[in-house]
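Table S2 (text version). Query chain:
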Amino acid sequence: MAEPLSFDALVSSQYVLSTAENFVVYALLEAVAKGGSSNGARLPLNLGVVLDRSGSMYDERRLEYVVEAVKFLADNVAPEDRVAVIAFADKAQVIIQPDQIHDRAAVRRALDDIDLLEIGGGTQMALGMLAAIEQVKRNLASDRLNRVLVLTDGQTYQETACIDLANQNREQMSFSAMGVGVEFNEKLLMRIAQDSHGKYHFIGNPEEIPSIFEDELSGLRAVTVRNGKIDVTLSQGVQIREAFRASPEIYSLGTPLLEDRRVTYEIGDLEANVPGSVLLTLVLPPRRPGPVRIAQSAFRYEVPGSGERSLSADVTVEYSLDRTLASRRNARVMNLVDQVSIAKLQSRAEEELKVGNVDRATRLLTNAIQGTQRLGNVKATQALVGLMDQVKKTQTLQTKAAKTTLLQAQAVVRKTQMLDPEALKDLQKGE
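Corresponding structure-token output:
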């Protein structure tokens, strides 16, 4: 049976200097699902949509755009899909049951009456998440795409409870988080999405809400591989210094918890033709010249109806005394290394600003901008230049304009810029 995906292990340097102590190489472990599902039909959806209906959602017509987005969702579900809609403020209430999503009149009535709900005016997001989880579990199945979508525009009580709910249920469903405006806690929403392998969206303009829902729906319909995991077994003497998710978004995977030189990174569901990858910074010991396997890797995944499968790929290098060979770099890997480095610089600049180190923050942003310019990433360059201008003007992140540019920069820099295949070929010719 043909595999529905490819799995590759690439290293930044195919040749390693034999005499070097603590030689650093980057290993890119990347799975790419093929287009089209294995049986020719897409997986049915099982969604819980959590909508903030606190008082601030009436600002800038945010709630109106949310209503429009849910109507779009209702107009584009298939007969086998199940979608529950929950509104929350101080309390949470299911306003559309999973089967009702197919009844357009019932959906319209529920949305028209959303103003009349007696659920208070605060923000208890954990209650909304819990109600959505309960609804998704009613139709939970391995051959469905089970996800909770959370949309909010403000700070919430009980942030730890929100994180706990995402982590406790991550084996059964993913969570996508959407933040509107500048008052929400972006770190909280990012963590909910990252921990559960969902998506995080910053929505600077409420008019973008329907298109974000459309993006979520398109992504879910493109999923062909479920519950991906990358297993890594290090060879003796090899260490992992850092680990990052490298695509489709960039974020740290934290300090690895090795057990018998083994570690597993969860990737989640894969959309067709969208790479799911991990970038490892490996530190190698000196060895005699010759080919060496520095790690073994395997990608475990599920195809609905076929059970779990796996693909393996060795991570290999060749030790050499030739410094010229050891200086050669793989263009694809180094491009992602650069993108990860830029994301780290932006994050460090943000931390420096929080403690008042404006000069240090501007130097870090300058380096990040130089990196995006070198990569030709115009959107990221524009976002970081905008952030730099705000920092120089206000010396803080506390103004609305500064916070908006920060959130825009975060969103753009974290999104992996995929190299054009033809451009990649040109780069590889120069290896």
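Notes on Table S2: The two ends are 35 Å apart (CA to CA). The longest strand covers residues 290-303.
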